[in-house]
Design a protein that fits this description.
The protein is an alpha+beta fold. Helix content is 21%, strand content 42%. Strands 4-1-7-8-9 form a five-stranded mixed sheet, with no helix packed on it. InterPro entries: Self-incomp_S1 (IPR010264).
C-alpha cells in the first residue's frame, strides 16, 4: 500500500515537472524593432530595460534600426520601457507591453517608428501613442 502511494506521488511529480518544462519551452517570444524616424538629421539615443533586465544604451542614426527579442512571462505581465533622448528632448515609452502587443506581434516583429510626437507601432494597422508622462 505504501509503495503504491509513493509511486503515485513520484509519478505525479515527474508529470508536473515535464508539463511545467513544456510550458516554459512554449513561452511566446516577441521581437521588437525600433526605428529612428525623429528627423533626417537627428541622432536618437535610447536605453531600454525591464524591472529585471537592462538592454543597455544605443545610438541610432536617422532611419537606423535596433531591436531585441524577449520571452513573455507566464503571467503575461512582461514590460519593457525605453528612455529616448535627442537634442534637448527627453522622453519615455513602454515599448513592450504584453497585453497590448502579444496578439498583434505574435507572428511579426513589433516595429516601432519613433517620431517627434510619439512612437507609432507599424505592425498590423499603424497605431500611434503619446509619450509617457514625465515623472
Amino acid at each position: 500500500m505504501c509503495g503504491s502511494y509513493a509511486f503515485n506521488i513520484l509519478f505525479s511529480v515527474i508529470f508536473m515537472v515535464i508539463l511545467f518544462g513544456s510550458l516554459c519551452e512554449a513561452r511566446l517570444r516577441l521581437d521588437v524593432d525600433i526605428i529612428n524616424d525623429i528627423d533626417p538629421n537627428v541622432q536618437l539615443g535610447l536605453h531600454c530595460k525591464s524591472k529585471d533586465k537592462d538592454l543597455g544604451s544605443q545610438s541610432l542614426a536617422p532611419h537606423q534600426h535596433w531591436g531585441f527579442r524577449e520571452a513573455i512571462n507566464v503571467w503575461e505581465t512582461t514590460l519593457f520601457f525605453c528612455h529616448f533622448k535627442w537634442g534637448s528632448q527627453d522622453k519615455w515609452f513602454d515599448i513592450l507591453v504584453t497585453r497590448r502587443d502579444q496578439y498583434v506581434c505574435k507572428h511579426h516583429p513589433c516595429v516601432w517608428s519613433i517620431r517627434l510626437d510619439g512612437p507609432c507601432r507599424l505592425t498590423g494597422q499603424e497605431k500611434c501613442y503619446p509619450w509617457n508622462a514625465n515623472i
